[in-house]
Design goal:
The protein is α/β, with parallel strands linked by helices. The chain has a single domain (about 5-255), classed as Spore Coat Polysaccharide Biosynthesis Protein SpsA, Chain A. The protein is about 35% helix and about 20% strand. It is built from 11 helices and 13 strands. The strands form 3 sheets. Strands 1, 4, 5, 6, 8, 9, 10, 11 and 12 form a 9-stranded mixed sheet that branches. The chain has a two-stranded antiparallel sheet with strand order 2-3. The longest helix is centred in the C-terminal third of the chain and has 16 residues, at about 275-290. The N and C termini lie far apart (about 60 Å). Bound molecules: uridine 5'-triphosphate. Uridine 5'-triphosphate (UTP) binds next to helix 5.
């Protein structure tokens, strides 16, 4: 079955970015000139997704508005003959791509957020993308496209993983894999001494609809939340699921340092800004050295 639906859980509180996220969504934080959520949406569309399902909460209106038509703005740009900008605004979503929104009334965890999308996903395999994991692969396919190819080839669910330093395992879901990359065990946020490996789950998944049954039945897990990891731990008892070390650079934009690095690196690569940005940064560092 084709992967045409993607779920974007965007209902978290984003406390690590307060006060920026007090009244506006973390997913609308901007890297160079695009909000985080747009990077994730573009990656999904490039992978063949047609139905975008956003799991939202209060104070997330800006996300709905971003993917909706803005008549006033388009009229204004048209009147002022700002054609390039008009195209930018009009092309945020290509034709044939639909948006649907469902509310998570309480931030009960990522697993719970995914479960909220069940009525819209139905009985088919689907992707999950966490916009705060920005994955850049300028010279090749996006991470989700690579995973979709694996899904067709291996005919099973796929979870993106990346090696992390051992001291950081407590911040991730960590997987233990067999030789064929199928997942044997998955643990949420283990301490380094208890971690089965250093392969960390990052925010891209292709899951089968059976995950919903497990999400409905698991108890509250780490941090008092319904954890997607715990449901996956049950799913792998009956289904093959592979861990996929995608190609590309991942920036943890849920964290201030990761977010700043994403801006720094993507600004350097920007075709219009890049050169000037690098010159300014160099000049600034020289100045600091001579102080
Ligand atoms: P995080 O663990 O980064 O949580 O969620 P958060 O609330 O967004 O941020 P902090 O830790 O308070 O700073 C990972 C992803 O899961 C979504 C978030 O929106 C983010 O995309 N999420 C998390 C939900 O949609 N609902 C939840 O209940 C929890």
């Amino acid at each position: 079955m084709e992967i045409t639906k993607a779920v974007f859980p965007v209902a978290g509180l984003g406390t690590r970015f307060l006060p920026a996220t007090k009244a506006s969504p973390k997913e609308m934080l901007t890297v160079v000139d695009k909000p985080l959520i747009q990077y994730a949406v573009e990656e999904a569309i490039a992978a063949g997704v047609k139905d975008l399902i956003f799991v939202t909460s209060v104070h997330k209106r800006a996300i709905e508005d971003h993917f909706d038509k803005n008549f006033e703005l388009e009229y204004n740009l048209e009147q002022k003959q700002k054609r390039e900008l008009l195209e930018v605004v009009r092309n945020i979503l290509p034709k044939g791509v639909n948006c649907a929104y469902v509310r998570q009334r309480e931030a009960l965890g990522l697993g719970h957020a995914v479960l909220c999308a069940k009525p819209l996903v139905g009985n088919e395999p689907f992707a999950v993308l966490l916009a705060d994991d920005l994955i850049s692969n300028p010279t090749g396919d996006g991470a989700l496209s690579q995973m979709v190819a694996q899904y067709y080839y291996q005919k099973c669910g796929v979870i993106a993983v990346q090696n992390v330093p051992k001291k950081d395992t407590g911040s991730y879901g960590i997987v233990k894999t067999r030789q064929d990359e199928s997942i044997e065990a998955i643990v949420e946020k283990p301490k380094p001494e208890k971690a089965p490996s250093t392969k960390a789950v990052v925010g891209r998944y292709i899951l089968t609809p059976e995950i919903f049954t497990h999400l409905e039945n698991i108890p509250t897990g780490a941090g008092g939340e319904i954890q997607l990891t715990d449901a996956i731990a049950r799913l792998i008892k009956t289904q093959r699921l592979i861990a996929y070390p995608f190609e590309g650079v991942r920036y943890d934009c849920g964290d201030k340092l990761g977010f700043l690095m994403a801006n720094f690196e993507l600004a350097k690569q920007d075709p219009i800004l890049g050169e000037k940005f690098i010159q300014r940064v160099k000049a600034s560092m020289e100045k600091d050295k001579n102080r």
